[in-house]
Fold:
Amino acid sequence: MVVSVVATRMDPSKQLYEREATGWRRGLYEDVEGTFRAPIVNWFFRTLTANEPEFTRYLWAQCKPLFQTRAFGRFTVSYRDAVRSSLEDAPADVPRYRRADLDLRPPEWRELRGQVATFDVVAPRLAFTFAICDRAMNDELPDPEPTGEPSTAPLPEWLDRDRGLSVTMLDDGAVPADLEPTVDEIRDFHGLEGGLPSIYRCLAQWPNYLEPAWSDLADVLESDAFERGCDDADGIVGDHCAELPYVPQLSPSALSERGFDESTIDDLGEFVRQFNRGAIESVLPALVVYAATLGAGGERSL
Structure:
């Protein structure tokens, strides 16, 4: 994921990657992957862990139970369905590719579908992560109004389990030259000044997919229908945030009581706010669309 980060003490170029994590940090990453049911640790967690490891551990302890309820599972499928349903009114159909359409070998096809499935799994989870951290840390969460048993009943064991594969991606500077026109259009659509979100650095490994997919999806993603889908998905995130069984103790006053200084709290609040604004508002819903083109999408009802 790429965001535009203002000057704070947080250094967005400083990340702790999975292969470098040891000790409790390795355990934290494994817990995030297991809880998200996806073999990937997002830039958000990598950057927080590198810059403020003790805060990251506290944040995860506060938020983890929110990802483990049936209500959360219902939220994830509703998020996915909101995006997919909106596209029924798009000016063009979402394409559905077969391996032969893309001239990919069977191992390439398996990796492409498996890695895109991982992004489909994490899309609603990241949308909720960014929203709940933003609202909690900026003291904008309402008092909890749990909606009965689903608020605390366990997340179904089968939901999104073992769907995706570990994600690989190109470095920012390693995108093939013949993909640059496509990449420029992608940046323009998402309002990116530079760099590429993880999904596109992943898809760039298969130009035979990314070029035709972007060409075929341009009218869909630039349509009022997709914009409405983004708004609907965002509304579902907001509704779920208002129905939590408890409020994570991440407000400025709560963090101060935990011993974090005021400057650190302000920097962290600004940092997480930026993850809930800008390009992610279209990038995360687009993950659901790419999965649909490969038949790699998840459940839409629970």
Observations:
- The longest helix spans residues 106-137.
- Residues 1-8 have pLDDT under 50 and may be disordered.
